[in-house]
Amino acid sequence: MFPALQNLRLLFPLLRYLDKTKTVSGGLSNPNKFYRIKLNNHRNIFCCIARNRKMGDERSYHNPYDDYDPERALEFVNPQESPHDIPKLKTGFKEKLIAAVDNLLGKLEPGITADGRDVSIYTGTTGFALLFFMLSKKRQDSSFLDRAARLIDGSLAKLRNRDVTFIIGDAGPLALGAVIHHLRGNHSMSSQLVERLKALSSEVVDLNSDLPDEALYGRVGYLYALLYLNQNLAPNTIEDSLIRQVIAAVLASGKALAKSERRKVPLMYVWHGSYYLGAAHGIVGILYTLLLAKDHLTDSELTEYIRPTLDFLLSTSYPGGNLPSSMGSGRDRLVHWCHGAPGAVHLYCLAYEVFGDQRYLDAAKKCGDVVWQRGLLRKGYGICHGVAGNAYTFLALHQTLNRSQAKGLGEAKDVLNLYRACRFAEWCTTFNQHQERTPDRPYSLFEGLAGTIYFMNDLQDPMEARFPAFAL
């Protein structure tokens, strides 16, 4: 593939060599202009120039929307009779979201059967199954459940007994398959899938294995699958003793690394030689999943290990509120769920609800401001590193603030973050118009169109929206 020069400052000295242009459009291709430039009469370089480029920074578009005020929010949210009422989306805006989802579902069809070899939730057929499973619940339409069942059965037939996590590995198809078969009355098959999932635990709890601890490929990715079953089947589907073994392995791994490196923080984790901090590969994802399992944690584990590591994480933030991708990173660049503030906000919101420490809520709000300013990503609309995933930042804040108000910890229901989520959804209705790079898997749940559809449908019930395969 020819290199793409995305920075206009690099392009200006080359313009005199320009000899041909063409526009790429249609399907999920990039609707930008590509210039073929001949350097020194012997080498062609193809340069992408985005249409209507107004600089936010090199990774995000300028946010064209005015921020929240009460009058402006009425475009999306019904007036509140009382400041303690939970805000509701206007019917007209919900209808706009439904129409956009229906339109995008039609565009998704060609991608569902394009490559059946990948069965992961991240970029494969189980991701599509998870989308249709969610649609079956939110729309009360059994045809979506039937579609999810066909997809999940195809995934289960192709498992490779390799990765053990919910997002990337076998645990995702096994857990989702168990839930879908249970709902369809196939209880024997559901039980078999649960047992197959539990059988993966030997590698997870073995500290001598080379398994990492992070969410995409590691122990907490398996832990999430166990918690998912207990929430979606029955509370004791997975026994406490197995969940405790996995938690113990995650904590033991983190304590051992912190001790061997003489860290002041009680838990430390590494993945492929880097000390990642974000939701996909780092401390954020690990601590967040552990806090999802808080009912299985002891008080000492919460106070002596998890909370001090949370406080360490707070100290690593850039002055503007964003989180570095890894320890030692001096460049404040990434505002993605996988790396940066959009993933961290989920942890800080949950930590605030668990510990009641205002510092965590303040950090979450700063993350929200970062995402509002820099979250309309040039990478596109996906949930891992795109606009839809970043929009879940505002839904996490919206839910936490409203739950806190219900407990008497806040003065009024949150509208600001719901307004911001609606603005990002409005951006998502322009799917493929603001995107400077086509994802490797442009239809998939985490990188592409399926994730955008997931968010736009989820937003229709804001207090019940959950980031797929990460939140519960």
Automatic annotation (TrEMBL):
Binding residues for Zn(2+): C338, C384, H385
Classification via SUPFAM superfamilies: LanC-like (SSF158745)
Domain of life: Eukaryota
UniProt keyword annotation of Cell inner membrane present: no
A Gene Ontology cellular-component term: plasma membrane
GO biological process: carbohydrate metabolic process; peptide modification
Any GO molecular function: metal ion binding
Keyword terms, alphabetized: Metal-binding, Zinc
InterPro entries: 6hp_glycosidase-like_sf, LANC-like, LanC-like_prot_euk
Annotated PANTHER family: LANC-LIKE PROTEIN, LANC-LIKE PROTEIN 2
Similarity-based family: Belongs to the LanC-like protein family.
Record-given protein name: LanC-like protein 2
